[in-house]
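New to this. Please check this fold:
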Amino acid sequence: MKEGEPEMTEEDAYPSLPDNEYGWEKLYSERMALAYGRRCGMNIRIARFQNCYGPEGTWSGGREKAPAAICRKIAEAKDGGTIEAWGDGTAIRSYTYIDDMLDGIYRLMHSEIGVPVNIGCPQYVSVKELIDSVAGIAGKNISVNWIKGPVGVQSRNFSNDKIYSLGWKSEYSLNDGIALTYPWVAEQVAKSLK
């Protein structure tokens, strides 16, 4: 997030200009759900998640989110070792711990809000800060070899005003969530090496 960058509301998704098919797929799925709801008289609730992570999630195989991938890489690395990461470490993201996400979903499902709602932790960190957080929780000194790879947009700054209107707020900082996630991922890594 660049300083002074305006927050994107849910309505700012239109006019839509996603940078890849994944973004189009998400917007099209929302439109399909809303159309179905109108046609069939069904209440529809749409949550737009900001990088959910936590224990029991996908942690390997290329489909995992950045927090799980970084936890795995650091769990696999020796203290003083090096991991690889895409980009240069400056991309900014918001990572939302699973318990916060579930609370937001619960509140949204019991609300009258029938339009898309952003749910995400308002703490924005760089990829480098994410790596530093995981390494700190792991108690390891880690170097990073920055490599070319898909980084996506530099940053996004989402408004959470709609979910805040339901009394929701993020309870877990990045360090809190990583402290609960890293041990679980490290355990999975250890089991996979046996």
